[in-house]
Amino acid sequence: MPAGLTITSPDISDGQRIDDRFAGEHFAQTPRIEVSGVPAAAVELALVCHDPDAPMPDGFTHWTLYGLAPSSGAIDVAGARPGPNDAGRRGYVGPYPPAGHGDHRYYFWIYALSRRVEGEPTRRAFIDAYGDAVVEQARLVGTYSA
User: Which family does it belong to (predicted)?
Assistant: First the structure.
């Protein structure tokens, strides 16, 4: 049975370069994210943006967002709980790969969950604690290089 959950963005085209205005060395504007096909069994959505190409053992997490309503449409960032990113802050931090490191892939994951996320875990803690609660997941991938 094919998955119905999708994640899109009017600001990022799947497989394409992310515009400079969303990058860390520029304005780091938070991109708009939209979801559709949310499964009926979902009680919450979670969003994670992760760069697996970062020269760190587990890549670099740019954004974790919890407490999202299990409904289709634009993600309401204001109504969510931002978790930690790997820059030591909360909220979105834009792409900022090392100069000359080539293209990095930025995976925007949306997770439909069968139970609510407690607190604001790191990406790794979220995956470890809630992997069994994922009803469905989808991704959008953008690229960026310095």
Answer: Belongs to the UPF0098 family.
35: Cβ contacts below 8 Å, ≥ 6 apart: 5, 6, 7, 8, 45, 72, 73, 75, 110, 138
Regarding pTM above 0.70, the answer is: yes
Q: How far is CA 2 from the centre of its chain?
A: 22
CB 123 within 8 A of CB 131: no
pLDDT tens profile 17-33: 999 999 988 888 999 99
Compute CA 86 distance to the chain's CA centroid, rounded to the nearest angstrom: 13
Report pLDDT digits (tens) over 64-105: 999 999 999 999 988 899 999 999 999 999 999 988 899 999
**Three-class DSSP category at 14:** coil
